[in-house]
TrEMBL record:
<protein>
    <recommendedName>
        <fullName>DUF4145 domain-containing protein</fullName>
    </recommendedName>
</protein>
<keyword id="KW-1133">Transmembrane helix</keyword>
<dbReference type="Pfam" id="PF13643">
    <property type="entry name" value="DUF4145"/>
</dbReference>
<dbReference type="InterPro" id="IPR025285">
    <property type="entry name" value="DUF4145"/>
</dbReference>
<feature type="transmembrane region" description="Helical">
    <location>
        <begin position="170"/>
        <end position="187"/>
    </location>
</feature>
<feature type="domain" description="DUF4145">
    <location>
        <begin position="22"/>
        <end position="113"/>
    </location>
</feature>
<keyword id="KW-0472">Membrane</keyword>
<keyword id="KW-0812">Transmembrane</keyword>
Length: 250
């Protein structure tokens, strides 16, 4: 006999082991009775699994066939073990309702499947916590932080970093525009045609001598200072030097 030592950890599992032993003792004298006994012990073990496993739901048909063929129960078992349990069910029904003989080899196979079912119950329900320990709380809290950091790095850094980079590009552009404006404001064209065209844009402040060539007063009381241009004409003047507005002198 190959009775696992762990079965003493739970009274009902120990009773199941005794049931397997009793079925094994019947092999030599009555294989059919052994098969019927194996089916009965299997039903007791399966019902115990349904009690201790919170993920399993009772099927509408609360019979051994209904419990055995439930989708939830099939999912927790290896397919090979589940097929062996179906074989126990079929063999037990045949032995109970048929007068024909039951081969001893099939009854022995049923007992082997029962012992495998007991080992499955031990690993899954009696020592489940030892097999899959819960991570410490500190590690559990640390994992999301690490993940968030990786996400930020993958997206190109933090929000502050992206703002600074975009602001820096904008600041450089503004500085370039300011420098260009001052360069244009202090640019003095040499050709007369270009000078007149430049004056019409009202951007050029010419470098004029301290004393104007003439000073006139308009009918609106505005004082206009005129200077002699390089072409010999008085074409430049301003009402208020500070505002940079130009008008030609008469």
């Amino acid at each position: 006999m190959d009775t696992p030592d762990f079965l003493g950890d739970d009274p009902r599992l120990a009773a199941f082991s005794e049931g397997v032993d009793s079925a094994e003792k019947l092999l030599a004298t009555d294989p059919a009775a052994s098969a019927v006994r194996s089916r009965s012990v299997m039903e007791q073990i399966i019902r115990w699994i349904y009690e201790v496993d919170g993920s399993l739901r009772q099927p509408p048909e609360n019979t051994l066939a209904g419990l055995l063929h439930s989708a939830g129960f099939r999912q927790i078992l290896r397919s090979e073990l589940w097929r062996r349990l179906v074989g126990i069910h079929t063999l037990g029904n045949t032995a109970a309702h048929s007068a024909g003989p039951i081969p001893r080899t099939q009854a022995e196979e049923a007992i082997g499947a029962l012992r495998e079912l007991l080992r499955f119950a031990e690993k899954r329900y009696l020592h489940q916590e030892a097999a899959a320990p819960t991570p410490p709380a500190a590690e559990w809290r640390e994992a999301p932080s690490t993940r968030n950091t990786a996400i930020v790095q993958a997206r190109g850094g933090s929000l502050l970093g992206r703002v600074l980079r975009s602001t820096g590009k904008g600041a450089v552009l503004v500085l370039i525009l300011i420098a260009l404006f001052f360069a244009l404001a202090h640019f003095e064209p040499t050709r007369p045609t270009v000078r007149r065209l430049w004056a019409k844009t009202r951007l050029w402040v010419p470098s004029l001598p301290e004393n104007p060539a003439s000073i006139i007063e308009t009918d609106r009381g505005e004082t206009v200072r005129c200077w002699q241009g390089p072409d010999g004409k008085k074409i430049y003047g301003n009402v208020q030097p500070a505002d940079g507005r130009f008008k030609p002198c008469k």
